[in-house]
Amino acid sequence: LLLEFAAHPWSTLLLLGLIATASVLILHTNWQALLLGLLGQYLLAGFVLVQSNLIQIAGMKIFTGIVVGSLLFTTIQVIPHGTLVRPLLREDRLFRILGMIVMSLTAYSVASFYLPLTLPFGIVTSATWLFSTGLIILLVALEPLRIGLGLLTLQTGFEILYVALDESLVINTLLSVETLALALALTYLIVARAQRSP
Amino acid sequence: LTALWIFILLPLVLALVYWGLQRMRYIALGLAVAACGVCVLAAWRIPLGTTTQIVGATLTLTHLGRFGLILMGVSVGAVLAYSAWQPQGWTITPFLLINLAFVNLALLIRPLPFAVLFGQLAALHLIFPLHSGPVPTTTPSSPPVDPPARPQLPAKPDHPQFIARELVIRVSSFRSRVPRAPGELRRGAVSYLIMVTLAIPCFLLALWLINHRATLPDPAGVIQPIVMLLGLGMGSLLAAIPLHIWWLMITEDGPPLVFVFIGATFPIIGIIFLLNVLSQTTWLATAPQVSNLLLWGGAISALSGGILAAPQRQLSRLVAYSAIHDSGVILVGLGAMHPVAAAGALFCLVHRAIALGWLGIAHGEFRRSGAGVLPELGTVAARLPVATSALLLGGLALSGWPLSGGFPGRWLIYSATLLKSPGIALALIAGSSLVAAGYLRLLRAILEARQPGERFPEDRVTLIATALLLGLSLLLALAPNLILPLLHNMLVDLPFPASPL
User: What was the ipTM of the complex prediction?
Assistant: First the structure.
């Protein structure tokens, strides 16, 4: 797998970008940074698909990401920001970094397992990384915004993998609709929590 | 445009109409219930095999699809009718109608990946009613109740009975012991959302592997991952142990009618999906891995559900674990791979809706009274005779108690499983007895509460609904042959052995 990284410099670069956005999503406590991280993640996921010549679907996924980001941004504008994301203690940060390392090792072994399926290298590595990131965010998240970011990351990872398996435009459009429905449900939960907070 | 569109367009239009007619709530609700009735009638009358095309897919009415459409229409109609008298939040009517439209679409559409995606879309809409409605409170709204003096369990930490019960209770409620801050989000909605998002990839990947098995390097070796993925997806949907946390959470803080609706309809959708997959792939249906997973997964859920239900002091946990036990029994019925057991599983699926209906009604009444934990529950129960009857009837029916509507289906499952795997049949019977014991403990607590005090006001609708469900349950118990032949017909496409028991 390490040799594969050297043979695919663009995929490696995109993966590094995804690692950077994941670090923002896992470690940051500022909601603007979190939304920018999510948006960056959608853009990079779109580029991963462009690299595999799935340009039409890549465009759709990037557009979906922009709509999701706008939905979350608009929602956060109408609620008090104090309760959105709780501050992290130093031990908490250390735990999350450790979790990221464990998850990257897991993603590495899962990616090695899937390579025989003859899927494009960039897709396998990005999808497994996103899926792992989503899981780690879900494990450590307490607030609906962060839980939502975890679910959206997980969904993006799955979508990238599924696009490589099934290029049907209808199915992929439906997957994007699911993402929008998920984002709507999340906005509802974020508002509901803000209204019930003392 | 064929008649099949009625199942999708009618609920969607009525959801919009409800929004428009919010000031005339009863008229709007009446229209919504009527729409569900029309859907049920249409499912009954439209000939099997009717098809129509939709972008890249086909809508077809099959035996299983008809079964699902009828059950969904009846469930949504019943919940909406009951919510007219017992409000569960304003979102329940429009979102249940939207959910009905998408579930109907999922039941009709082929190929199956479309069904999975529309199923997810339907499930996501339930977040709104799940998170609305009155927030559960632990502060009694009724006059405070003095718990009666009753014999307590031996408080010696080294007493075996004490240790066993404490262990089971702590294991079964480890998540609820985390203190909840005022205003904190209801965890049920969030855990439900996580479950829905995680289950769908499992189904989609399993379907992809099924469809592309021939082109993969090792077609025989692919059965194991398919079974694993289907097992994870089905386990999440049916809240099988250990994928049941979301179900515990929503029974704890979701509106009773909504969690009852989810508990009754998710297994219907999941099992129809599984039967559709198995009927299209004989190689998978006859693979021993599928049968083993269903049998053992089901048996573990049924037995653990019973073990965890028996010592519960908290009503919501008792309801949750008895439903988990029932899901396990249904899975075993399918795993026996016998037409009789499978018909029994479908019978249990029908009766499950009735039993959960009782439990939902009772849970709502108890929650309003402010009691949710023994021994207070026993004292309040003596003052809520109708709700208590519903609770005991529902609990005993879910445990497959003889003379309840849950018994005929159980009997078929036990008979077929005893031949195939006696150990599993015994585990089911043990689980059922433990669930029944959990409800009988409640009955004991009621009998021990010697000072019933003044009766709490109970709605007449609660009485009517309880009596109606009792009538239906008795009908199923005394005349199971009314629906068993119909259930047998739904299984014609499955590769089961031809001879019945």
Answer: 0.90
